[in-house]
Amino acid sequence: MTRILMLCTRFPLGEGDEYLTNELAHALARQGDEVSVVVIDWDAVPGTPSVTRRLDDSVVVLAVAPRTMTGLGPFVAKASKWVLSSFAAMREVRRSFGDAGFDLLIAFSPATVVAAQFIWCIRRFRPRSYFVLWDFFPFHQRSIGLLPGGLVFAVARGIEGWLIRRFDTIGCMSSLNVAYLKSHYRLRAAQRVEVLPIWGDITPPPVTAAAAIRAAFDLPPGKKIIVFGGQITEGRGVEDVLAAARLAAGSRPDLVFLLIGSGRLAGLVADQAAAADGGNIIYRPRVARRAYLGLLGACDVGLVCTVRDVDVPTFPSKLIDYLRAGLPVVASVEASTDFGDFVVNRNLGLSVLAGDAEALLRAVCTLVDQPGRRTDAALSGRRALEEVFDVNRIAVQISRPSTGEARSSLDTAPSRS
After folding, report:
1. Which pLDDT tens digit goes with each residue over 160-217?
2. Buried-most residue among 88, 182, 276, 295 (CB within 10 A)?
3. Measuring CA to CA, how many Å separate 220 from each of 162, 223, 255, 279?
């Protein structure tokens, strides 16, 4: 049994609301490990007391409310929120787990968000440490306009780089992510860097009649629904989706673009949907994961979009839900990523360059007009889920380190059994 401490900033506790962090924690518990989680709950009211919960599989979760300074401008408010919340989490960890012992510490990018509790834990417990690197902070934030350059960027880069060098192992989402890490951050010679695919529960969702689901969510029964789900914020290609919908309004009246989620651009999407006035753009707020999976099953094509002119290679996790629902995928992604190649090589759908709404719409129409592509994509998607994205495989990879050069099924050809 491995005693594991997980540090994160998102860990849903609601029934039926899964995310990568709680899926991993439950997978680790299923294999017999003892798992404790410390999460800074950004949705909690700042300054409220921390809450500890023991879940059914004995995973212990300590949820810490954020701390922040107000009245000094949005940048200071956000920076202070990261710093003060991290120190608040450190105090709670010391109070709740100070006398415990851990063999493995897992943290998720950006490391800066969990800096104080991470440093305290590695000095107090001296565990092995594993860094799951999804977000190349601050490079990605600068490229999409969320962080200024100059001194602010230099300071953020220095802090993040210093923290990354403290980890024993770093897991990146793909081979190009590994290459980006090595070219943009200074690492220690002894650090292990490996490909760690995104993950999820790969169980197929219950089959429900599409007509019933569409009726429940007030969706048109006779249209082809092109769905975009997840965070509706900067860097997710939301503008391209809306542009493709506007192009389709006259030429493809059989298509409806459904956007589901929350985020800073949700208001923009809601306004566009309202302006369409029953047209081809529909917005629905975020729903719990299980309901979301059911909703996907009533759609026809899934969209994975990022933004152009970004050099940070991404590998969006929303792909897993589309594959579980059996949807073909259109990937509209930056040229620097290998995600589009993965989609095409695995026969999961089509890929175009981000920023080209016309190409995005053409790819959508190709999949819609070839019904057999959905059957093929569903079979290929099931194979990819089992060979690459199964959370149980990832739990073993993180908690049971192997020797020798790291190898991932992301880098191997798909089986043709």
Report:
1. 999 999 999 999 999 999 999 999 999 999 999 999 999 999 998 888 899 999 999 9
2. 295
3. 52, 6, 10, 10
DSSP 33: -
d(Cα 394, Cα 404) in Å, to the nearest integer? Answer: 17
Q: Would you call the peptide bond into 138 cis, given omega within 30 degrees of 0 as the criterion?
A: yes
How far is 182 from 131, CA to CA, in rounded Å? 14
Say what the pTM is: 0.88
User: Residue 256: is it exposed, middle or buried by C-beta count within 10 angstroms (0-12/13-18/19+)?
Assistant: buried
Beta bridge partners of 3: 34
| Cis amide prior to 110 (ω within 30 degrees) | yes
User: How long is the chain?
Assistant: 417
Neighbours of 66 (CB within 10 A): 22
Percent of the chain with pLDDT over 70: 94
CA distance linking residue 186 with residue 183, whole number of Å? 8
Q: Are 41 and 67 in contact (CB under 8 A)?
A: no
- Phi then psi for residue 282, to 5 deg, are -125, 135
Beta bridge partners of residue 362, listed in sequence order:
none
CA distance 53 to 36: 10
Rounded CA separation 181/202 (Å): 28
Place of tokens 């300071």: 155
- Residue entry with tokens 């954020």: 66
pLDDT value, residue 208:
85
The stretches of 54-174 forming alpha helices (DSSP H) are 74-97, 115-125, 139-143, 150-164
Rounded mean pLDDT, 386-403: 90
**What stretches of 230-374 adopt beta strand conformation (E)?**
255-260, 281-284, 301-305, 329-333, 349-353
* Terminal C-alpha separation, the chain: 35
CATH number of this structure's domain 3-200+390-409, picked from the four choices 3.40.50.12780, 2.60.40.10, 3.90.226.10, 3.40.50.2000: 3.40.50.2000
Give the CA distances from residue 265 to residues 12, 75, 180, 199, 274, in Å, rounded to whole numbers and listed in that order: 22, 18, 28, 26, 14
Domain 3-200+390-409 and domain 210-387 have a common topology: yes
> Residue ranges of the domains in the chain?
3-200+390-409, 210-387
Pick the CATH number of 210-387 from 3.40.50.2000, 3.20.20.80, 3.30.70.330, 1.20.1420.30: 3.40.50.2000
What are 7's strand-pairing partners?
A: 38, 107
- Collapsing DSSP to helix, strand or coil, 330 comes out as strand
SS3 332: strand
